[in-house]
Amino acid sequence: MDNLDYGIIGNCKSAALISKTGSLDWCCLPEFDSSSVFAKLLDDEIGGSFEILVGEDYHIEQEYIPNTNILMTRFSEGANVFELYDFMPRYKLESGGHYAPPDIIRYIQHVSGKPVFRVRYDPKLEYAIADTSTKIKPDYIVSVTQEGKYDSLYLYSSMDKKMVLDGEEITLERDEFFLLSYNEKIFRQHTRQAYLDMQRTKVYWLNWTDRTPSYKKYNEEITRSALTLKLLSHNRTGAVLAAATTSLPETIGEVRNWDYRFCWIRDASMVIKVVSALGHVDVAKKYLQFIIDIIPDKDEKLQIMYGINKEKILEEKTLDHLKGYGGSKPVRIGNAAYEQRQNDIYGILMDVIHQQIVKFETSLDNCEELWTITKGIVWVVREHWEEPDKGIWEFRTEERHFTFSKVLCWVAIDRAIKVAHILGKAQHVTKWIDLERQIREDILDGAWSEKVQAFTQAYGSDDLDASVLLMEPYGFVKANDPKYIKTVKAIEKELCHEGLLYRYKNKDDFGLPTSSFTICTFWFINSLYKIGEHKKAIKMFKKLLSYSNHLGLFSEDIDFKTKRLLGNFPQAYSHLALIETAINLSNVITEEEEIKVAVR
């Protein structure tokens, strides 16, 4: 594929990617970080897929059912038309819980005529490490691994199983279904039940979306991004994934290929802050419980990332038998970055804790635990803020005194002071105020470069970094501060290229980055908005939105030249920043709107 033209479906337990032609090319079951059952995304020869194949005369188009995560692919050839609805069931039960099995339903709706298609059903369990055997049984098609780790997968259908498996032509005359499940079903499966599951799932997503507020502009983009962030949250534990994939390269043919199916404290906390601000407080409460669960001891330092089931060891391995997306090797599972030290995570987490306590004050069920964590964060920051770290971009070799890390250490103390006041714990504040002042003065002294007239990537450096644009949103400086305005201008001059932003341009462990990190462009657009350059911000925002795929989804990176989406997909980072930017710019009245108002 030339671009990441995929839609994502999921049910807050796992997820799958469906191509714009209706091919299921990536899916891990039973959970997000389980081994893959389809991985054509990472190897188009041996990875495995589940495809709906039609003749060249068919026109194919794809969209989500509005305000849901149900993906519809429409196949038409004159009067012969059918629609494929892909989704993972998720809906509320009378007991109060959610029905969210490790299942994918592919509901095929007959629209008109006698459309013809074939099926390519080729599951490859356990990352296709060993052979997968697929056989027809009386009630289902079953796939099992032949050697190595045992695994199995079940396919139920209303259609002739042999015709499906042999790839024979099927003439559609009525609605049909496929149900792909990690588990063998107890009850008989039928088309009516699949349709009912689709309607229940549709109602669930419509209800969820209905709780998202409306804005003057960009509602469609905000809603799609919010739905995507919800899909990347793990309902049972409260973890939030960075993305649904592994090893999609930042640059084709290079080695910056990482597994993102984990919960980074930084990414997740930023997501939670945005989603909670949209009114979805249940996601925030579950995430805070996740944090409480992973820090049971008062002196336990926070890792930068965890498994979605609270795992603390995320051993990194390579799958050398897979050729990788676009031939980009290695394919990695696990992520060695879990051992890194990144001091910014404390401030980002503390910012979310403060947001939730402001919203709920002492009505939060876990308020006492959060106060204990607050004190623990202050202790860790006091002991370690003066030390270098790996930084937000996870440099794998040299540690430095990164400006962003220092600013977020300040944020940690600033928010802790605010939390102490809210909870009536003012006796703690006096010594914390001295620490807050000390960190602030250190940043103002060490992070500013007279030479480049900007806050720079690290102390003593003249290199620029997009992350320092967040100094204003986190409250360290005001938007009208001359030094912040100069920093925005310097970053525009040095890091902006063809309407997209470099994270930084100094060489890292793998050489000079050649793709734009999507979130950085959103940060820059927000900075333009904050310093009053609204017209330029709106123009850049509209251009950036045009680089999304056909469904409005973004990955981690964008190629500077081709504007091709690169990196893991869909990326939580990109979509949370899209929401923040869209909400800010929705308040801007353009010249065209002013003229319309005047005419009226």
UniProtKB/TrEMBL annotation:
InterPro entries: 6-hairpin_glycosidase_sf (IPR008928), 6hp_glycosidase-like_sf (IPR012341), GH15-like (IPR011613), Trehalase-like_N (IPR045582). One of its GO terms (biological process) is carbohydrate metabolic process. Residues 8-140 form the Trehalase-like N-terminal domain. GO terms for molecular function: hydrolase activity, hydrolyzing O-glycosyl compounds. Pfam families: Glyco_hydro_15, TREH_N. SUPFAM superfamilies: Six-hairpin glycosidases. Signal peptide: none annotated. Residues 217-582 form the GH15-like domain. It comes from the Bacteria. PANTHER family: GLUCAN 1,4-ALPHA-GLUCOSIDASE (PTHR31616:SF0), TREHALASE (PTHR31616). This is Glucoamylase (Glucan-1,4-alpha-glucosidase), GH15 family. It comes from Sinomicrobium oceani.
